[in-house]
Amino acid sequence: MAVITDELVRDEVRSWLADNWDPEISLAEWWDRLCESGWAAPTWPEQWFGRGLPRELAGVVNEQLRAAGALGPPSGLGVLLAGPTILTHGTDEQRERYLRPILNGQEAWCQLFSEPGAGSDLASLQTRAERDGDEWIVNGQKVWTSGGQTADLGMLVARTDPDAPKHKGITYFAIEMDQPGVEVRPLREMTGRSLFSEVFFSDARVNQSAVIGELNGGWAVANTTLANERAGLGSGGSGAVGGAMPGRNAKQLERRVGDLTAGRGRDRAERAVAGRQAGLLEKLAKDVGRDQDPNIRQRLAELHILNEVGRYTALRVKAAKASGRGPGPEANTAKLLMSRITRLSRDVGLEILGPNGMIMGPDTPGGGVAQELALFAPAVSIYGGSDEVQKNIIGERVLGLPKEPDADRVKTMPFRELKVGTQRAAS
Questions:
Q1: Is the pTM of this model over 0.85?
Q2: Which helix (DSSP H) or strand (DSSP E) does residue 297 occupy?
C-alpha cells in the first residue's frame, strides 16, 4: 500500500484543480465538483464524500486551493459542527441524507442549543419534544442562534423525558427550519448587525428518522458538537481564499464563483469579525503611521505569538481526532485562547487608532473594521460555552479539582423536580 505524502496530495490536488477550477461557473456547480472529488472534506471517510486523509494533510489541500485562486469549501456550522456530529453518531441513512448537501452548500445549518434559562448550564434546557406517532412535536425557545435566519436545518437539543435526570432526558434532532411553527427573530447587536437570532417553536414537527444518536442520549451527541465547536473556534478558518454563504436562503448559489473568491460573499467587516481578515492590525498600523511605535510592535508580536500557539493547539486537536480519541482538553484551551486573542486584538486595534477608535463608520481609518471588532469582542468569551464554563471543565475533568456542591445529586434527580431559577422545571 502506497504511503500518502504531502507531495502526492499536492500533485493530485493541483492536477484536479487544473481540470476543474473555472471561475465562470456558478457557486453551486463549483461546490458540487469539490464535494464529488472528496477535496471539500479530505479527512472525512471516502464513503462519505471525503478522501480519508490524515488531518495534517488537510492543510496541503487548502494550500493548493489558495495557490490556484479557487474558492474553498462551504463555511458555516454544517461543515464545522453538523457534519462531524452526524459522522460520529448518525446512521448510514442519515449520513446519506445530510452530508452531501452540507459539502455542496445546498443546505445551511444553525445550532439550536442555548435558551434564555439554559446557556452556561445547557443541560437545564426546557424546550420539549413529545412523541406523536412517527413525529415529534416541539415547543420552546432558543436564543443566540447564529445564522438562524438563513438556515435550512437546525441541530436541535430538546427534552424528551422530564422524569429522567437533566443530562439523560435530552434528544438531539435535525429539524427543518422552513416549516409552520418555527419563527426566527433576528437580534440586533451593538455592532449594528444581526448575526444571532432567537427561535420560537410552536408545535413544530420533526420526524423520528431525524433523531441523531440514541433517544434520550442527546447529551453525548451534543458534547461532540460542542467539542468540535470549541476546537473550530480556537483554530480559525481553513485558509482557503474567498468567502461564500451556503444554503438556498443565502441566495449565492447561482452567483459566478469567480466573483466570490475575494470574499465578496461577505463584506469586509463581517469577514473580520468571523476571523478571516489576516494581517488587519498590521496593515492598519502601517496605514496610520504607527508601525514603528515600539509599544505597538511589541503588542503585535504578542498577538502573532498567541496566534501561533493557537495554530499548534489546532494541530494537537487534529492529532487527537486522528488517533480516534476525539477533541479533549485541547478544545477547551483553544476556546479560551481565542477569547484572549480577541480581547488583545480589540485592545491593540483601539491603541493603534487612538482618538479615531471612538468614531464608527466606513470613512474612518481602516474602514471601521477594528472598531466593529472591538464592539464584537465580548461575544467571543460567551458563545461556544463561556470562558467560565471552559475553566470549570478544565478544572474538574482535566485537573481533577473538586466538583461544585450537590453536583452529583443534581445529576441523579428527575428534571421535573429541579428548580430552574425560581421556578420548578417544566413538566
A1: no
A2: helix 294-322
